[in-house]
């Protein structure tokens, strides 16, 4: 358990469990999910311009999920293996989750840019638990600069966590308020990697446009 900062919003905490799944379990789960999940490339919008995400995704949950001006439809048909994994993650983390965003990084050129999981639909101080399968990729975190830095991240604290096959990472407390995270492109060969991010979604607040951030932040690229 790593407390990566205290304030301004509260304690930001990472819980890292390498070997949460044994290599054998992780191997067959990776192959099964790669073959059986309905992977597709989502189209997002930035300043009215459409762009395809540099990764494939799929969504499970009774509510739709909107981010970057585009919506993943509700999908209550959980793959049986994902239901089993959800129960295991709930037991390990002591939290419950009603939704799952799955990411597939096909190779080292696939990525996710700096963002926080802080849409209003995720509630205040959300806990996000993620399982990594496949090739190791570096999970980067950077602290939000204080307001007088005017959004300049040049001198902020950064943390790099390699997430290997079978690792569970739980982010909670103020992590989504005070930090951003990314999985950057790599310039040497990487095999495919699946990341399963369990979260809890709430209905969009009355009168909110779906996908609204809790505050103004950069959008998930
Ligand atoms: O692939 C990862 O480890 C991170 C995924 C992520 O940041 C997200 O789905 O919000």
CATH topology: Jelly Rolls
Oligomer: single chain
Q: List how many beta strands DSSP finds.
A: 15
CATH superfamily: Alpha-ketoglutarate-dependent dioxygenase AlkB-like
The coarse silhouette is: globular
Question: Could you tell me the mean pLDDT?
Answer: 92
First-residue to last-residue Cα separation? 28 Å
Which ligands appear in the coordinates?
A: 2-oxoglutaric acid
Tell me the Rg in angstroms: 17 Å
Low-confidence stretches: none
Can you lay out the helices and strands and say which pair or pack?
Layout: E1 2-6, E2 11-17, H1 23-36, E3 43-46, E4 49-52, E5 56-61, E6 65-67, E7 70-72, H2 80-93, E8 99-105, E9 112-115, E10 128-134, E11 137-143, E12 158-163, E13 167-173, H3 175-178, E14 179-183, E15 193-199
Antiparallel strand pairs: 1-2, 2-13, 3-4, 5-8, 6-7, 8-15, 9-14, 10-13, 10-15, 11-12, 11-14
This protein binds 2-oxoglutaric acid.
Structure summarized in a few sentences:
With 221 residues, the chain is mainly beta. It has helices spanning 23-36, 80-93, 175-178, and strands at 2-6, 11-17, 43-46, 49-52, 56-61, 65-67, 70-72, 99-105, 112-115, 128-134, 137-143, 158-163, 167-173, 179-183, 193-199.
Protein architecture, described:
This protein has 221 residues and is mainly β. The chain has one domain: Jelly Rolls (Sandwich). Helices cover 14% and strands 37% of the residues. The protein has three helices and 15 strands. The strands form four sheets. A seven-stranded antiparallel β-sheet has the order 1-2-13-10-15-8-5. The protein has a four-stranded antiparallel β-sheet with strand order 9-14-11-12. It starts with a strand and ends in a 22-residue tail after the last strand. The mean pLDDT is 92. The chain binds 2-oxoglutaric acid. 2-oxoglutaric acid (AKG) binds next to strand 8, strand 14 and strand 15. The site of 2-oxoglutaric acid has 11 residues, from strand 8, strand 14 and strand 15. It is found in: Cytoplasm; Nucleus. Its main location: cytoplasm. Interacts with the ASCC complex composed of ASCC1, ASCC2 and ASCC3. Interacts directly with ASCC3, and is thereby recruited to the ASCC complex. Interacts with OTUD4; the interaction is direct. Interacts with USP7 and USP9X. Its EC number is 1.14.11.33, 1.14.11.54. InterPro entries: AlkB-like (IPR027450), AlkB-like_sf (IPR037151), ALKBH3 (IPR032854), Oxoglu/Fe-dep_dioxygenase_dom (IPR005123).
């Amino acid at each position: 358990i790593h407390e990566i900062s205290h304030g301004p919003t509260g304690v930001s905490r990472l819980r890292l469990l390498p070997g949460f799944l044994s290599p054998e379990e992780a191997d067959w789960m990776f192959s099964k999910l790669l073959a059986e999940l309905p992977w597709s490339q989502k189209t997002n919008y930035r300043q009215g311009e459409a762009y395809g995400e540099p990764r494939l995704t799929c969504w499970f949950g009774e509510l739709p999920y909107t981010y970057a001006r585009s919506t993943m439809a509700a999908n209550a048909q959980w793959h049986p293996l994902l239901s089993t994994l959800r129960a295991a993650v709930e037991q390990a983390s002591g939290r419950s989750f009603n939704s799952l965003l799955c990411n597939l990084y096909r190779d080292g050129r696939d990525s996710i840019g700096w963002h926080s999981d802080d849409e209003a639909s995720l509630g205040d101080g959300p806990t996000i638990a993620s399982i990594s399968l496949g090739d190791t990729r570096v999970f980067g975190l950077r602290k939000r600069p204080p307001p007088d830095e005017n959004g300049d991240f040049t001198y902020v604290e950064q943390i790099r966590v390699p997430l290997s096959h079978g690792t569970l990472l739980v982010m909670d407390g103020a992590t989504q308020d005070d930090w951003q995270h990314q999985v950057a492109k790599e310039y040497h060969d990487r095999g495919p990697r699946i990341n399963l991010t369990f979260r809890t979604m709430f209905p969009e607040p009355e009168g909110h446009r779906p996908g609204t951030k809790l505050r103004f932040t950069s959008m998930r690229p």
